[in-house]
């Protein structure tokens, strides 16, 4: 079944079956990674409930199954770095300091949301927290984040810009234009291409003829790496290497994360076009379950401790959901404000 | 183009744009130039000649042929506090960056806060036999995008003053410079030329009988026609819009209420052109002042043709304007 998308290199696949990559991260950091992956999944579960209750305005886009890629990559950034997440990178945003209530009020279009109801879902950012908001036109963020990296160089700062693209988004002109521009300018840009098997209903084999997205890095003359996207430690380590490369003047890096989208494109999409065997195959590689197993087998955490993390998250989310539900919609006339800066 | 005459210390429209960017670069280190062939070569029209030598390659960036990447990178840098000025080698190529401009830059501040203080400039317009892809006036594609500003200078003073204001503006500004005017329009610039406010039209010629509302190269067509018509006893008032977005409604309505007849002249294909928007605003807000229909004189609804007689047939000109004004005056 895995002919639909590029498989991992055999060696990586073999390793990923039971154990996770070696890491420089200590126990506390690893528990933080667990916290953020669990938080991501639980926030999305709450949103899914709210969607079914008709509280979410518009669509709901899930990163279920891809938490390790979002969390592991974002965790490798320094405080002064910038990140441009796309729709399935809720985990990246949470690592960057976004609060669950911001996400919930956004999805519910409340006046208390980060955009005051002017935009929805995860379409918001905050430059103070190094977050650039995405637009729905995929690929567009890559040149923009190259510009963020360019500005850093002009200001004599060593910040790195990181952004994401799906397998589908790599078919856009902007992906190519942005990668090429960043390459010739040798900008500290890290692009994580999340190869999650499907772009809406379109399998990766209909997006591109090459097996691996990372082979495109050769064309730009930049560093490229494939990583097991369901191994949070592997994603962290690969991103850390790329961030360091960029910071030290080594230019852009394209990281291909092999992962899988465990839901439809959006909540309304039942993903009937995905063979059931693929879901089963990837469920066995669930990034959170794998990491939990790793934490327990290495005795970095006890089951009790992990259960405690999850329980604390659930308790905090009750309050976050209540806050969002109690927040009013914005006054209609506010739609007129802020067209010009 | 009689308005093109200039004195001894006169500079060209092109030189005024160049000087405005130069002065901005000198006075604000955040300002930088980015585009194709703008560095070593000095730009296809030599607008940025000498910039690389003076300001270095960090502030005068030669790029790959990637309009969307150029504008995207400018957006990213602008959000981070830099002041990019993007050159489109020919403004026609701006279509390749349409998404970055209308979907990223224009609504960015509205959506989530950060300003995008960016200028996208380039040579527009016909009458130079550049055919379909080197002669367009693309304002119609952009003037409905909330969050954008659009300016189109017609004179040396405006070329300088609007460029300074565009660079200082916190919003994305499209700067349509007319290539027919580059070396034909000349005037003196004072030692410290004034910036020109974005959003303010200017009465280029006072008159009482009929208003022509226009901008860019067509301003000079209108002024020439006004001379001819004056001989017939028809005194045209010519309003130079200067800023196409946001439009100066007050100035537009004031001239219509004064002369009671109006013709909108511009260099775009007729359908969907800015002339239609101006006409609609007049019809909505000054209907009872009108002694005749609001008329338009625009290009034809065809791509820009190449061969000189066909291009002349396509473009508005003095003869067409004079004839249409005479006809409209008879209402």
Overall description:
The complex is a heterodimer of chains A (341) and B (331). Chain A is α/β, with parallel strands linked by helices. Helices cover 43% and strands 9% of the residues of chain A. In chain A, a hairpin with a 2-residue loop joins strand 4 (198-199) and strand 5 (202-203). Chain B is built from 11 helices and 14 strands. In chain B, helix 2 (51-55) links the parallel strand 2 (31-35) and strand 3 (60-62). The chains are: A alpha/beta (341), B alpha/beta (331). The A-B interface holds A 114-115, 118-119, 123-127, 132-133, 135-137, 140, 142-155, 161, 173-174, 177-178, 180-181, 184-185, 338-341 and B 32, 58-59, 61, 63-64, 66, 68-82, 84, 99-100, 103-104, 108-117, 146-147, 149, 170-171.
Oligomeric status: heterodimer
Q: What is the C-alpha radius of gyration of chain A, as a whole number of Å?
A: 19 Å
Q: Helix content range of the residues of chain A, please?
A: 40-55%
Category by helix and strand content of chain B: alpha/beta
Total strand segments of chain B: 14
How many DSSP-defined strands of chain A? 7
Most extensive interface between two protein chains, with residue counts: A-B, 42 and 42 residues
- Shape label of chain B: globular
Question: Structural class per helix/strand content of chain A?
Answer: alpha/beta
N-to-C series of helices and strands of chain A: HHHEHHHEHEEEHEHEHHH
Features:
heterodimer; A: 341 residues; alpha/beta; five-stranded parallel beta sheet; 7 strands; globular; disordered N terminus; B: 331 residues; seven-stranded mixed beta sheet; five-stranded mixed beta sheet; 11 helices; 14 strands; 37% helix
Can I get a quick summary?
The complex is a heterodimer of chains A (341) and B (331). By secondary structure, chain A is an alpha/beta fold.
What topology does this entry show?
The complex is a heterodimer of chains A (341) and B (331).
Chain A (H helix, E strand, L loop, with lengths): L9 H9 L8 H26 L14 H9 L6 E3 L5 H6 L4 H8 L33 H14 L6 E6 L6 H12 L4 E7 L2 E2 L2 E2 L12 H5 L2 E6 L3 H16 L5 E6 L17 H8 L3 H11 L5 H24 L15
Parallel strand pairs in A: 1-2, 2-3, 3-7, 6-7
Antiparallel strand pairs in A: 4-5
Helix pairs in contact in A: 2-3, 2-11, 2-12, 3-9, 5-12, 6-7
Chain B lengths: L9 E3 H15 L3 E5 L15 H5 L4 E3 L4 H13 L3 E5 L10 H15 L6 E6 L14 H4 L6 E3 L4 H13 L4 E6 L7 E3 L13 E4 L4 E5 L2 H15 L4 E5 L2 E3 L3 H11 L2 E8 L4 H12 L9 E5 L8 H7 L3 H12 L2
Parallel strand pairs in B: 2-3, 2-4, 4-5, 5-7, 6-7, 10-11, 10-13, 13-14
Antiparallel strand pairs in B: 1-8, 6-12, 9-11
